[in-house]
Amino acid sequence: MQIQTDRNQKEIKIHGTYEFPVLVSHERLSNYERKSFMWHWHTELEWTYVLEGEIQYQVNEELYRLKEGQGLLCNSNMLHTGRPVDEKDCHYVSITFHPRLLEGYKDSFLKTGYVNRIVENPSIPCVVLNSSADWENNILEKLKKIEALYQDQKQEEDYDFQIYLLLMEIWRIVCRHVPKTADDRIAVRNMARLKQILTYIHSHYRERITLEDIASEVNICSSECCRFFKKHMRESLFDYLLNYRIEQSLALLSSGNGNITEIAEQCGFSSSSYFSRVFHSRVGYSPREYQRLVNL
To answer: Partner of 71 for a Cys bridge, out of 87, 92, 110, 129, CB 3.0 to 4.6 A?
Structure first.
């Protein structure tokens, strides 16, 4: 499986329902194609805590190594991705919820005084729980309670109300311990530029894209474009483009429609031999072998 996004890299998946915008799920990196989940963002806030193994969790340009018993809150609209450590699997729980669950009515004191100061602040891309402080462990324990309630909701008539109260209590703890920071206009500009680059790549990956094309799209020189992208994504533009093309090819190969040459062309590769070489180096199988495996 892989995370489904639109061309702006916003996740398409619905997290919960409008009435109760909360989704709790057990995840394993090994369940994702290529053992990692791709870059994406969403309006919802997302708590992650690790049950087994380790994960390299990146939010914007910052990379965090989370071990068993540790966790992280990814803020609203922040780009994030997850990769394995030493090619080993990681089992973690994801608790995703919309900020409006915390806000109450429009322009309430909760929204203006306690939610917006974190959710709308680009200086706080995430909150890391290293289990090194009492308040961090307090949050982790409450996250475990939410997971248990969600899994056994048939046993509790008011499970949703209990989850809501736990999320509110967690947010109170976050507000008490995460320092207030000023809005960072540079961070806002950088994220807008990065999303613009990603949108261009996702819209044109089938075509022949040059560095000059991408740099021109965001009105910076080619060298600055390379430096900027590498700093924030921790990989080169060229590697990201190749990886994205490979990601798009996986669904086509899995569907069984089209031959290798046609799929290579649809995903922006100049030839089937080049596609096969890149695919094997990143997936570990040739396209034909992968197609045969997933269609057994």
So the answer is: 129
Q: Which residues pair with 85 in a beta bridge?
A: 88
Reading the chain (296 residues) residue by residue, the pLDDT tens digits are 666 766 666 776 778 888 889 999 999 999 887 788 888 889 999 999 999 999 999 998 889 999 999 999 999 989 999 999 998 999 999 999 999 999 988 789 999 889 988 998 888 899 999 988 999 999 999 999 999 998 887 677 889 999 999 999 999 999 999 877 665 677 778 888 888 999 899 999 999 999 999 999 999 999 999 999 998 888 899 999 998 999 889 888 888 767 899 999 999 999 999 999 999 988 888 998 888 887 76
Cβ-Cβ contacts under 8 Å for 161 (sequence gap 6 or more): none
Distance of CA 104 to the CA centre of its chain: 27
Kindly provide the b/e burial profile for residues 204-224, where b requires at least 16 CB atoms within 10 angstroms of the residue's own CB: bbeeebebeebbebbebeeee
**Residue 292: which of 247, 244, 260 has the closest Cα?**
260
**Domains, the chain, ordered by start:** 22-177 (2.60.120.280), 185-294 (1.10.10.60)
Structure-block tokens of residue 266? 């649809």
Strand partners, 23: 96
- Model's pTM, two decimal places? 0.79
